[in-house]
Design a protein that fits this description.
With 265 residues, the chain is an all-alpha fold. Helices cover 79% and strands 0% of the residues.
């Protein structure tokens, strides 16, 4: 039994080392004074200085953050309303829509990217910031529906009618009764949509135009030559994601404890 437990611990250590050691190495070499990606010479903030003084990189960061933010808001609204609407439809129609919704999720990104590229070209839409934003909304919305719809299925179908019988308007029933009960699924959809949008490369690469690049595209272009600024950019992205995850997990727990403490007192 003890040997089995030791084997499990070693397996976990090996897995975590395999997953996180490359990230740790990237973060360490972001402070390397030389261009070498294999030999650490001395501590330096040289590549962070290059990062913040590079107009192309800063513009790519703005594009990634703004598109991820806008795509998350729009896809969350569309996905949540679609999930609520599905609960009011017939079973056959529900199954058809859910299966159709799963197609973009199961599709390889390259297929979705080529399809969107052909669509924008066929309607003579100039590729750039707007096409990238529309593309991100398209592929983020199915993930939001997948996150929210199971929560909608667990609700009492008469909940909205009961709220309106008590004097609430349809909008109040939606915002004060339905949405608060779906908040866990909505939060999961928001995080998933933002992560998918912020991290996307393949679809963005096919639907963007000249002069519009997000972080993934700019990093891909940097890999064609030795440029340790990639390490600095990757380190900042990792830290931002880590801080976001910590806040998302800590803030609700703190608020819950405060609420419980107030109810006890």
């Amino acid at each position: 039994m003890r040997k089995h437990r030791i084997g499990q611990i070693l397996y976990i250590i090996v897995c975590f080392t395999f997953f996180y050691l490359p990230i740790l190495v990237t973060m360490i070499y972001s402070f390397n004074s030389s261009k070498s990606l294999t030999k650490f010479e001395s501590f330096s903030l040289r590549w962070y200085e290059n990062l913040f003084t590079s107009h192309d990189i800063m513009y790519a960061v703005w594009v990634s953050v703004s598109i991820a933010f806008l795509a998350t808001i729009v896809s969350t609204i569309l996905g949540t309303l679609t999930s609520i609407g599905l609960s009011k439809n017939r079973k056959i129609l529900k199954e058809i829509i859910i299966n159709v919704n799963n197609v973009p999720i199961m599709n390889p990104d390259i297929v979705t990217a080529i399809g969107l590229m052909i669509l924008f070209s066929s309607i003579h839409m100039e590729k750039g910031y707007l096409t990238m934003l529309l593309a991100h909304i398209v592929f983020c919305t199915p993930y939001v529906i997948t996150s929210v719809y199971p929560k909608v299925r667990g609700l009492d179908p008469n909940l909205a009618n009961a709220a309106m019988d008590l004097g609430a308007t349809p909008f109040q029933a939606l915002t004060k009764v339905i949405l608060p009960m779906l908040k866990e699924g909505i939060y999961a959809g928001v995080l998933l949509a933002f992560t998918m949008s912020f991290d996307d490369f393949v679809i963005s690469y096919f639907v963007t135009g000249n002069g519009v690049s997000n972080i993934s595209i700019i990093v891909y272009n940097m890999t064609k030559r030795t440029n340790p600024t990639i390490n600095a950019l990757s380190t900042i992205v990792i830290l931002v994601i880590a801080i976001t995850l910590i806040l998302v997990n800590v803030i609700p727990n703190v608020a819950k404890r405060r609420k419980e403490h107030k109810s006890v007192t």
